[in-house]
């Protein structure tokens, strides 16, 4: 009597009559491709890359302030007054538009925070200035460049990714600012530079996060950054323009082109995912 072979099932313990590597022709019926793919328009890709360009402009603004203070092209009092006025107007606008409840309570709390920072920053500026004073200038500039690159890599651009670390990004930028502060001529210069570091790397990103995707904001920041670099170095201006075109134009073009080759497969070989359903 001929024993009939059992029908193959997707249970290893029931497939006694089949080799371990055997699969039925129905195994690939559940194959799916690019299940979670998201279609991205060219404009969206450019705006996404523009967030990186915006933060690059912020770094340029801070470096330009340092160059002007270091060369004595501008007085620190002028920088402090002008930057404080701009920060105050931007903060009042931000709070007026977004704070609807307990407005005065929030403003008093913010004012207290500003006063604490100004007092402690001014008192500690002599210490911060001499913190890296014994390190050579070339090493300081190399460390600052490295810290700013870390700041740009780990900055939160609004994309949920494992590499994002706002604390690491901010700490890297502040550490780079402390390094540059040691090259200035007086503790007050260092205090002004560190105040600008807080305004550029703490306050400005909060304000810019509310205007993400704005062509006007992006174009204005790029224009101001190019003009500021033009006043310092034509070579640096040219390099910045090239990097801006690479990040804002070429990278989105490559991204959209390579999206056509995306071919992720999903099927019964994937790991099981347990979904917690409430009864």
Please describe what this structure looks like.
The chain has 279 residues and is an all-alpha fold. Helices cover 65% and strands 1% of the residues. It has a two-stranded antiparallel sheet with strand order 1-2. It is a multi-pass membrane protein. It is found in: Membrane. One of its GO terms (biological process) is GPI anchor biosynthetic process. Keywords: GPI-anchor biosynthesis, Membrane, Transmembrane, Transmembrane helix.
What is the fold's blueprint, element by element?
Layout lengths: L31 E2 L8 H30 L4 H23 L4 H28 L6 H18 L11 H16 L5 H23 L5 H16 L3 H26 L5 E2 L13
Helix pairs in contact: 1-6, 1-7, 1-8, 2-6, 3-6, 4-5, 5-6, 7-8
Brief summary of the model shown:
This is Phosphatidylinositol N-acetylglucosaminyltransferase subunit C. The chain has 279 residues and is an all-alpha fold. It contains eight helices and two strands, in the order βααααααααβ.
Coarse structural class: mainly alpha
| Overall spatial form | elongated
Major beta sheet, strand line-up: 1-2
The fraction of residues assigned to DSSP E strands is under 5%
> How many discrete structural domains?
1
- Work out the number of β strands: 2
Features:
elongated; two-stranded antiparallel sheet; 279 residues; 65% helix; mainly alpha; single chain
